[in-house]
Amino acid sequence: MSTSSSPGVRRRQLIVFSVACLTIFSYLAMSLFYTIPSNALSSRHSKGARAYFNTVTPQVWAFFTKNPEGTQIGFYSREAGVAHNLLRTPQGNPSNLFGLDRTQRAQGPEIAYLNAGVTSWEDCAGLLDSCLDDAAARTAQKVENHSPVRTICGDSYITQEETVPWSYRNLVKYEKRVVRIAHLDVICA
């Protein structure tokens, strides 16, 4: 009979495993407790445990998602003075076969590459149509599209847009405001 299978060794291994699990789960439970909104036992203004847990093990959704009020990238074409959105979102649109066509999933990396190729942006503080009119008067920057799935080619406009904060949604008639724009000639080789 080997010593690793003796009842005393197995009992010690079980105790060590149980203590380790109890320690880890206790730590996670405490971090969750101290990072949730203020309660009777822990105020947001307290220092010590709350500050420690918010720094070391924050429990926030920002880790998984992008700030919805942050800057968004848009891509548009313009025909006869009318803007056409080149983004193929949302995924559940009938044009995407209610999610079966996965081409729109390839647009994220494609747009990131095109965005990285923009050499100069023009500031714009207004609505899309007025920004497109101003950008159309400028010479287009040539950018090559090396994406394996090309959805954006030719004369187009890339924008940086800010969403109207939710608290102000009833005060304005638009949902997004263009902050910067660039006129592009996207070359698909």
How does the SSE layout of this entry go?
Elements (H helix, E strand, L loop, with lengths): L6 H29 L13 H8 L14 E9 L2 E4 L21 H10 L5 E5 L1 H9 L4 E5 L8 E10 L12 E13 L1
Helix pairs in contact: 1-2
Structure in words:
With 189 residues, the chain is of the alpha+beta class. The chain has two domains: 11-62, no CATH class; 66-188, no CATH class. Helices cover 30% and strands 24% of the residues. Strands 1, 2, 3, 4, 5 and 6 form a six-stranded mixed β-sheet that branches. Strand 1 (71-79) and strand 2 form a beta hairpin. Helix 1 crosses helix 2 (49-56). The longest helix is centred in the first third of the chain and has 29 residues, at 7-35. The termini are far apart.
Characteristic key phrases:
single chain; 189 residues; 4 helices
Strand content: 15-25%
- What is the share of helical residues? 25-40%
Shape: elongated
SSE succession:
HHEEHEHEEE
How many H/I helices? 4
Please indicate the count of domains. Answer: 2
Q: Main beta sheet: strand number and arrangement?
A: 6 strands, mixed
Q: Average pLDDT across residues?
A: 84
Q: What structural category do the secondary elements indicate?
A: alpha+beta
Rg (CA only): 26 Å
Q: Report the strand count.
A: 6
Outline the low-pLDDT stretches.
none
Give the termini distance in whole angstroms: 71 Å
